[in-house]
Amino acid sequence: MSAKTDVKAYRGFFTVTLICLFVLYAPLIVVTVYSFNDSLSITVWQGVSLRWYADVFTGVESAKFKTAAFNSFSIALIAATVSTLIAIASATALVRAGRFRLRLPSMGLIMLPIMVPEIVLAVATLIFFNSIGFTRGYLTILVAHISFCIPFAFLPIQARMQGIEDTYEQAAMDLYASRAQAFRRVLLPLMVPGIISGFLLAFIVSLDDFIITNFVKGAGVETLPTAIFGSVKQGIKPNIMAISTMLLAVSVIFVAVSYLAAKWDNTKSHLKTDPAR
Amino acid sequence: MTDSSTPAVDIENAAKRYGDFTAIKSMSLSIRDNEFFTLLGPSGCGKTTLLRMIAGFEDVTEGAIFLFGSEIEQLPPNKRPVNTVFQNYALFPHMTILENVSFGLEMQGNSRVDAHKRAGEMLELVQLSEFAQRKPAQLSGGQQQRVALARALAPSPRVLLLDEPLSALDLKLRKAMQIELKHLQRETGITFIFVTHDQEEALTMSDRIAVMSAGELQQLGEPRDVYERPRNRFVADFIGDTNLLEVAITDIADNLASCHVQGGHQIQCGASEGVSKGMTAHLSVRPERLLLSAAPAEEGSLRASVKENIFVGTDITTLLTLDGGPDLTVRTSNSARGAARVFDPGADVFVTVEAGAARLLIN
Amino acid sequence: MAGGGVHASSGPVAETYARARHQLLIPAWAVLLIFVAVPVAMMLIYSFLTKEFRGGVIWEFSLAAYDQFFFDRGLFGDEPPKFEWTYVTIFWRSIWQAGLATILSLLIGFPTAYFIATRPEKTRAIWLFLVTIPYWVNLLIRTVSMKFLLRDQGPMNDALLALGVLEEPLRIINTNLAVQLGLFYSYLPFMVLPIYAAVERYNFTYSEAAADLYASKWATLRRVVLPVVKPGVIAGCILVFVPSLGAFLAPDLLGGAKNFMIGSLIEEQFKGNAGNWPFGAAASMILLTLVIIVLLISTTQQRKTREPG
After folding, report:
1. Max Cα distance, chain C (Å)
2. Mean pLDDT of A177-197
């Protein structure tokens, strides 16, 4: 139907959507293109080359970036794994175990890291580690990341668990499965897409973090964001654009995986559908 | 004012296609002013699509729709003097009942005060004044239904479209609402176009019925006409219960056809157009137009044996098998007079077709 | 936001899980109490302590931090107290910047979310995917990219000069506008996603009913669509406003020294030259209070729009 007679359609919304996408992508595309610039200057275009990618791995700053990348990815991996496990346990208690007194306080506590502004959480964590005399370094970053990743892992897992009717577990128990078996053999497999989403989200959030890391990292310990930030303070250099483009690629791969996990989700037609639809 | 012979809605060769799928094949239909018109058909027959085309929610792929003589294809829904009672009511959940009912009036440019006043009157009409300040979710299904009706009637549309509005109600409430709707239509004099898949509902309420199937108009007529003189097997089968017998035409004389039923039975019936000797056709006989007796009547009685009796309150339904032939269903009224015509299972009986009750269908 | 809408299952399965529920919650409680709740409480205590030079605190009660925030030369000094505008102005600027970024995000985000939600099911996923990708990209990288693009000699100015739209490069970097654009760009996906979710659940027969009752398109949008999807709009505004308020990267990288926001002010007390921990803790507490007020207002708004029954 034409926009005039279709009550759903609004003229101009399509244009705004294109503007929105343009705004979101223009900076990223520009940086990606300039990361291949064969020039010492970031303003002058001198043809395509991979020299700045080589520079990231072999240049003066390569050692710094390699350590930072190792720190970033190892912290993200451990923090996402631990927070996902904690989130699965919490979601099971909060979604599956009926109503109880500690339910709402628990929910509030889990959401706390999302509701407190990042900079406030950073200040609080710094003060905490300082006052208990804990030396700041790799371990303090890791502990802080595990804490603030929990709600990000929790949200998709909880949403998924709510979408699964407990009749499946009832049926399993009816067929003599123990509680643990019903959980492991029925609920957990159905939960997999939610768990993947939760893990990926936690991983990306950890990899993304600058503010909290910047506060709780000790002298000399850097992650990719803090290293990049330190470097950018002296001006944007072409090797930073190369690193950015590589991190961009990592992000795109992550979204693609999480998208596929969600797709896989759709093939399970026996799950409860949204009653509003 | 338009002159009274102008149809309220005139559908001329209108068709609706979604890509390869044809929802409505070229259809023509005239709906008179002030009539209670029903679009009847099974789900997916295109009746709701047709209604939405009149309302303006679907465009017309081919052909045209006229409202009181003027073409409306280019008019968006909010410019058509037509209101809809939606199947799920679509009452705005964030507005009170009064706000819901006055919405259309306000949108027509009436002041809020006037709109609320008229909305109040409408709520009185549907006996819901006391709920004016409630939200839709606080009302029962039947009450929501009446609000939806009041909301659609408040702006005094020239045509009211009702999309299966009673389907969510339980049986008792549905029956009551059927009568209420009929009254309302008479009182307001507004043309109602009612969509339903419930043939009983259609027969009860309508001035005229359009029976639809697979995007095509099967038959158009008054309830009695459609029930007693179905034009084809689909209509005969869809409206009411019927016995459909495969027959061979053995002879035609004086506009009477002799029909041969498997098992050597003969039934005489009026020959309809297109019937010729030697062809096979279907015979439709309503169960209540068949009579059972212990002894054969003078002519045209068929031998059969009783299989089962089913008590359905007002009637008793008897299943029987014609000797060497197909099964038949006979309905006898549950009364003293009817009791004489009920036989135990296993009994041999004779079946007589009431004069003029059998209808020959060639497609 | 607190997930209060999450319903608990009941019945036989719930009973079997019920026995283990406290054990299941122990890890979450342990981690979040020790590393989030206790630190926030300690921050509150720190804001009432005496500062030590070059960072840290002396364990002596003091109102100096709050005094410094609101009053010139101190409330307890010899001179009559005077209201101190410096820090309040920084807070006010932050609220203003975050508010403008939120409005800009709403103006772009709502039509986008609506447009995507009304696409056919097949293409909808692709549009949504396109909007989601930037959300997953490192915020620092996105902010740096924005700075690169907006620079005086950056690609945007180059392009506009080459096209003859401009005669002189736009000097956006180190202005309030750059910060607003940066915040808008940082959190725009947060606006689109919740509104999309609300519009996707929206029952379009409401729009049809409105059109049927003579509402124009804009009347339908204003009187019916917006009120019904309001919870999603509020959620989107919160998700943009709250992080914008405490943002550090966009103001720091795009705004420069003149366009200080709360985030930079706090950061300076701990990482920078100021080194006044109690003052930093006090500023954090004030920011946290602001955020709590915003969240409370939004929850009551959400509750108001939720349909009864």
Report:
1. 74
2. 81
In this prediction, the residues of chain B whose per-residue pLDDT falls under 70 are 1-4, 298
Chains near B with 3+ CB pairs less than 8 A apart are A, C
Q: With CB atoms and an 8 Å threshold, state whether A251 touches C137.
A: yes
- From CA B309, how far away is CA B316, in angstroms rounded? 7
The neighbour count for residue C272, using CB atoms within 10 Å, is 12
List the domains of chain C with CATH numbers: 92-306 (1.10.3720.10)
pLDDT digits (tens, 9 = 90+) for A207-217: 999 999 999 99
Q: Which residues of B touch C217 (CB under 8 A)?
A: 76, 78
A265 shares contact with chain C (CB less than 8 Å): no
Contacts of C262 in chain A (CB under 8 A): 119
Residues 6+ apart with CB under 8 A from B341: B291, B292, B293, B332
Nearest residue on chain B to A3, alpha-carbon basis? B76
Residues A148-158 have pLDDT tens digits of 999 999 999 99
CB-nearest to A7 from B57, B74, B75 is: B57
Using pLDDT thresholds of 50, 70 and 90, give the confidence band for residue A76. very high
pLDDT of residue C63: 83
A174: closest CA of chain C, how far (Å): 11
Query: A113 in contact with C at a CB cutoff of 8 Å?
Result: yes
CA distance C251 to A212: 17
Task: Kindly list the residues from chain A whose CB atom is less than 8 angstroms away from the CB atom of residue B58.
Answer: 1
Check if the beta carbon of residue A145 is closer than 8 Å to that of residue A121.
no
Instruction: Work out the angle between the directed axes of helices A188-208 and A238-266 (0-180°, nearest 10).
Output: 160
Interface test with C, best of A123, A141, A185, A244 (most C CBs within 10 A): A123
d(CA C179, CA C256): 9
pLDDT at residue C241, as a whole number? 94
**Residue B130: Cβ-neighbour burial (10 angstroms; 0-12, 13-18, 19+):** exposed
Verify whether the Cβ–Cβ distance B104 to C214 is below 8 Å. Answer: yes
Residue contact B76–A1, C-beta within 8 A:
no
* ipTM of this complex: 0.86
The DSSP code sequence of A171-211 is HHHHTT--HHHIIIIIIHHHHHHHHHHHHHHHHHHHHH--H
Helix axes C262-270, C277-305, angle to 10 degrees: 150
Identity of the residue in B88, B95, B138 whose CB atom sits nearest the CB atom of C308: B138
pLDDT in tens, C260-277: 889 989 998 888 777 889
The residue-averaged pLDDT of C221-241 equals 92
Residues B84, B94: contact at Cβ < 8 Å? no
pLDDT in tens, C196-205: 999 999 999 9
Contact between chains at C212 and B92 (C-beta distance less than 8 A)? no
- Whether A1 sits inside 8 A of B58 (CB atoms) is yes
